[in-house]
Amino acid sequence: MPLPRAKTPRNDPTPVIPFTECAAKTTRDNRAGTTVADHCVNVGCVGEALFSLLPESVQKRLPPAPGLPLSVHDVGKVSPGYELKYFTDTVIQCFAPALAGQASFCSRHASISAAAIDRWLGVGMLTSPISLAAAAHHGTIDRAYPPDTAETLGGKAWAEERRKLIEHLSSFFGGSLRDAENANPTLLAGLTCVSDWIGSDEQFFPADRPPVDEGNPALTARHAVAACGFTPAPLKPGLSFEQIFGFAPHAAQEQFIASASRPGLYVLEAPMGIGKTEAALYVAYKLMSAGHHHGFYFALPTRLTSDRIHERVSEFLKRITDTPAAPRLAHGMAWLKEYEEGGEELAPGHPWFNPMKRALLYPYAVGTIDQALLGVLNVKHSFVRLFGLAGKVVILDEVHSYDMYTGTLLNELATRLQSVGCTVIILSATLTGQRRTRLAPELATFEATADYPLMTGLPSDDESFAHPLPAPAAKSCRIRLEPWDNDRIAEEAVAAARRGECVVCIANTVAKAQAWYRAVKTAMPENAFHVGILHARFPLFKREEIEQEWMDTLGKAPSARPKGCVLVATQILEQSVDIDADWMISELAPTDMLLQRLGRLWRHAREQRPCAGPEMVIVTQDPSAAQTADEAVQALGKENCCVYAPYVLMRTYAVWRPLHAVELPADIRTLIETTYAEQEDAPQGILWAFKRQLDQRCEHLRKLACSAQDNVRGIPTGSDDERAATRYSDLPTRAVLLVAEMLEASAWGDRARVRLLDGSEWTLRQNAPDFAATKVLHASTVSIACHLLPERGNLRQSCRWLDRHFFDTPVVLVCGEGGELACLNGPETVLRYSPEYGIWRSDKPLDARTARVPSDAQTEDDAYDSSQHDW
Are 503 and 566 in contact (CB under 8 A)? Predict the structure, then answer.
């Protein structure tokens, strides 16, 4: 959009207001408050206070005296456009009434600041990190703005006032703007933005009076930074591993800790249950204690896994700090767990500083990888995310679980983290050498190594290395591939449970898990043993209840481990759920997923087991005899091929078919590398067609990920939250709020009284916040694939009574007495819910009303046709 041109005639100079009189903030009664000059000083002082807390690895990438380059971020407020926008009745009337009523001046003060800085330095547009930081400090960069003396910015007279302001700030802070010419642009932009947020908080810098601490901006800035929580808690020195975690380190942990004694990049590949989390946390403690870093971020694949690790990291932090400290939880729903009060700019509802968005700025945080990936996406304030991680130990866990899209973003993130002074620790049990090289190209020398467990690393001041690690005690797991149907699976699971074995059955889809569970319930004698089902299509409160129940039952130290039970689940069990099975049945899945599932088999040492040794039965037909691709998909399972690439399933089958046992951890490297090795001599048959299909998809995802990164020129339009494109899916989903009964609803849709599935009743109003209600409402939601929901017309609902509780209003479905789910406006759906099975799909609404359990006749996975839906 072209900038407007000022209409003031050239022979009639634009009235000018001295920079000392230009206002930056309004008071609560809409009077002119803090001047631009004072606000710039406040922000520069905050920046200096923040800078003093950063480790040397970050400070050396910023200006040595940052107060001046940070303070000039708002010199553009000395402009007719900005003063007219906010101070027409005050500053304008007092000093330049002739400007009143004019609407042709540019008011984008961030761009005007950049223009003034460019002119001061005598450089081109946005070629200086200082002008870039000023232009970006509201989250986006206007890459096209007029020169400082342009008439639309007030002409030469206003440009002169901006120059005088820069001179004033130079005198106050000392130094020269040219001292910042070699600063890291990302870090300078992040520091500028955060300093501006705090320097704008009226709790510390009121608009109608001087700063709160003796009118001294520097003293107030130090107080404000500490009050906001940026000061790391003092660490207890010299703690041993055993003092922190309560047990002595294993040999592999000891070697990893000794080798990761300096800042750098480290990759730890080791089997499940070896203590990778504790090893990484202790390295973080040692590096922070040595002054190399000022905090850490622990990133995991999902919200639930980060919630569970958060509990463990909280205990770790309590033991290493002298003063009470707790890690911030950083994911899209973290604000439900953390709801803190603060100043106006720090209040939870503020668009930039609510808990979800400010967590990475705190010294210690645990959350999803998505929060860190936002630092490389083309979204607003992406540079703030990267600044929040700068100078910290960043632990990336379960990195094998990402597809090409998220994996490409992760590769870029790992590179950038090293460029901003981070130590990066990558953890995985099932990483291929090729994937390791993509994450850390500097480690390409070791791509073909056969060692496992393995530690590879690149200290920041040394050469890369690879160290084999001592392996834990070997575990031999028997393997069988069987073409069992649902009834046979149930028969075998029931027989094992009646022998006293704790059986876990893992299906690849919710529909298959429900079918297996129903078959087990049908085959077992009444109340013979405990049986349960766990998947993602339960509302959150119910899912958490089920997870906790089974972790208490089958965890490391259950109060009473049952003599026989069956748990049917989906891939939920693969990550951070502490379940220990005696015997396992699993659908065919990629090798790395099968190994993760094996990690739940005989997971903990026990004196007695009801069976001779661990065994996993892999349920699959034989795809090798297929004559066509369709026959191969039919053998693999059409639903499974919707979840995993058919090529990878075919390769997995070929690798596992001849096996009778797997030795852990000795066989892990061989199984992984053989599955994903390039098949250069493969004939051009079914496997070749599947490989070509996979390659095309991976390249498509890679290009999508590259186009989403913030190094693509253009103004960011995405929001800096988890709704940004950190993940990619061909199967769009919607959040669905399950309501037991609509007790009352206003005609205008602004008020309702509802009863939820947990039995609680709530009166909800459009303009009445109620945090207790918000927590319960979110716990009553479930994510459902869009193609399972009714057509758009039936989903048009007036639910303004939910405005105070959701960023994006969910679909509301009402659960009838029999479990049938209907739209809020009446039409029934093909979905049904029960507390036992969760949500399932039937062919017709009539089936949903009459069916009491899911049917095998229809699965939701093969009902999706992307050409028929435009979600």
Answer: yes
